[in-house]
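Long-time lurker. I teach an intro course on protein structure, and each term I like to show students one example going from raw sequence to a predicted 3D structure in token notation. This year I'd like something fresh instead of my usual example. Would anyone be willing to generate the tokens for the chain below so I can use it in lecture? Attribution to the forum is fine with me.
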Amino acid sequence: MTMSRERWQRIDDLFAAALEIEPSARDAWLTAQCAGDTELLAHVRRLLRRAEEAEVVLGDSVTRYASDILESLGGEAVADEALAAGTRIGPYRLIREVGRGGMGTVYLAERADAEFEKRVALKLVRRGMDTEDVLLRFRFERQILASLEHPSIARLYDGGAAPDGRPYLVMEYIEGEPITRYAETHGLGIDERLRLFGDVCDAVAFAHRSLVVHRDIKPSNILIDAAGSPKLLDFGIARLLDPSAPDTGPVTRTGLRLLTPEYASPEQRHGLPVTTATDVYSLGLVLYELLTGTRADPDRLRRPSTVAGNDAWRRRLRGDLDTIILRALAEDPERRYASADQLADDIDRHLQQLPVHARGESMRYRAGRFIRRHRGVVAAAALIVLSLVSGLGVALWQAGQAARERDEANRERARAEQVSEFVLGLFGSSDPLRPEAGDTMRVRAVVEHGADRVRAELAGQPQLQAQMLTMLGRVFRNLGQYSRAEELIGEAIVLAGDNPLYAREHVEATAALADLALRRREYARLDSLASAVVSSYEDADWPVDVTYVNNVSLLAIARDGLGNYDEARQRHEQALELASTLGDTAVSTRASMLNNYAVHLHQLGEYAQAEPLMRQSLELARSIYGSRHVGLVSDLNNLASAIHYQGRHDEAEPVYREAIEIARDAYGPDHPYVAQFQENLATLYADMGRYEDAAPLYREALRVALLEPEGLRLANLRRNYALNLHATGQLDEAEAMLRASLEGFRRELGDDHLYPALARTSLGRTLTEAGHPAEALPLLRAALGVIEREFPSDHWRVHHVRGEIGRALALLGDYTQAEPMLLQSHTTLAAARGENDHLTRDMRSYLHRMYTELQRIDEAAAFAPAPR
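-- Reply from a regular --
Happy to contribute to a lecture. Here you go:
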């Protein structure tokens, strides 16, 4: 019997509501709701009986349970046959199905438009599972994968929607075997298995440092590729850690928990909050199976050494490895390893025959470890000691040395645990570096609370305080709260002081301040801070890493801002070369270096040379983050700008809009990035003559900029907005805005810099138009001196200022000097920026007015305003 839609909806509503009622009162409530409809009551009771079982298997077996339930109710299961080879999904061509799980089917696919040849895994929501909850979870998986860039985590390449609207993800395709099967088929020994497992722990620890808990670690989600390297897959039910709620992110409407029961932690099975300890437990189960060949039974957990397959392996597992695994599998999360890093560290210590932290610190145990590591030395020492009457003194010395070693180990462990517990306790489940729209205030409150905890709980530990305050300062920086960021990072620098033991903390905090100076466009300060970071690395002979490369690039940007373009180019090229030495794990750094170099070219007016570098940077960013991610916004904005200033206005507009939409979705409307991108779009509209469209964007950008005024940033915005006011005839408002802009530029950069020169040009132009050419001339001539020094003599910027000087001279009656200046300016601007550019139109208008006043009618007609 096929059930009607209305009947189905009634059953589903009662089932969902019943799950929210205490089990002891549930049946009486349900009986009353069914009001004598025995068939309805039976259907819902049947679903409720299955709910507890489905709750623990839904992650892997949802299709089977959905089919069973549908059939038991007289309905029909939704068919989801594998799509045929050759089917197109977006730009991808399916090759074959390679797997299916609770939410989606995975296909081997290849790019169908020949853009690249590498095969990929395409995960498509299964037909019949495209409910609101599942679609939300799918989007959440994509968000998490986009934030994880690690060689042992399968990478996200792309995503989109299939023709029928179902979303899909495109990921790195791994040809490999589950870790347990790989170990068996390749005959790996215990040490080889432990080293392989250590690499898995590194990947999980990286996810934890990114505030992501996987929640579904099992052998089938850990594939070993042909090179023998592990890849962690399937973050489909991952979680971000959140201090304010036990389990944020997408959940099913009925509250069913998604997990694989055989590898689930006790807290998952009981519906309790998850932490990094959840993944540690699952790692323990994988390690148990990897070393014994037997799946652990959490309800009747036996020591691994008692179930291993042969005597040799049982002897090897007895002791350290038993203890390590059982600590990872402790029922109470507080008794487990606090992090995957700690688990990996104990495995590494065992491989080196060092004391493992899980065994405690007994003298007998440490001595046994020492003897195993140094059998020959200990044997020789024993002979010497036996021959000496003073042997007791030697033994006492050794005991003291061991105690000191133990105390140092205790301090190290306590320090590591304190950092881990602090970070987890603070952030729990939200990602403060990429807050969701509308969530900024909550994240700010969390970080403020974190700063208070740093001062209170880490008092007397300046090194840890410096690390934590720098991290919190970076969070505020990303939220656009620059003043608060500087306060916290400044505290970190004071705490690190000049203590050589805290040199790294001091440099990291200085690097954070340098990045803050960049965002505020404080170029002199940026130059000083980035130089200090680079010098610290070079003086200490530290190896090249991302921090060093970033600060070489920041130094280049500072030199750009200060007008030292030749030195800036050398530094940009150095940063690009250094980034290429960091390997495949630093793709985002290389993308940033390409982008920064392209911006350097853009500032010099080399827009056509900048554009391909910007496109290359954007493609690298897309390979990391996917097609719509906050990590793309700077690249999109800069590419739009390069297109814009080549005169391709219609092509630039949608790229600017994409940057604005992504930034607004990620950061909310009050973030400096959103304001900056709106300003750039407004400038595009002004260049197109769409002044009315530009005005509200300029006003909104100015509103945000005034929330936390920044020197150069605000000065530049005021200049651009003033140009729009000038174009719409609001000359008094434009003049006031330009005077404020010029003062801001002079305060930050002095008088002899390009930016104040540009502001003087704009102010002089407005004064001339307002009928004050005598006041305008000294401003324009001062600007020309700087611009002639910065640009070649035939550059359009030089001739634009000369044209404005010509306009002022014409109004003062000096036509002899004015005419050649205006004619040359018009010719140069038309060639460089096009006949329809607003600056070219201005010069045409000036010439038309001048010739009209001189009653040179034919020449006036030649420069009549062109139709638009």
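Some talking points for your students: The CA atoms of residues 283 and 433 lie 27 Å apart. DSSP finds 35 helices and eleven strands in the chain.
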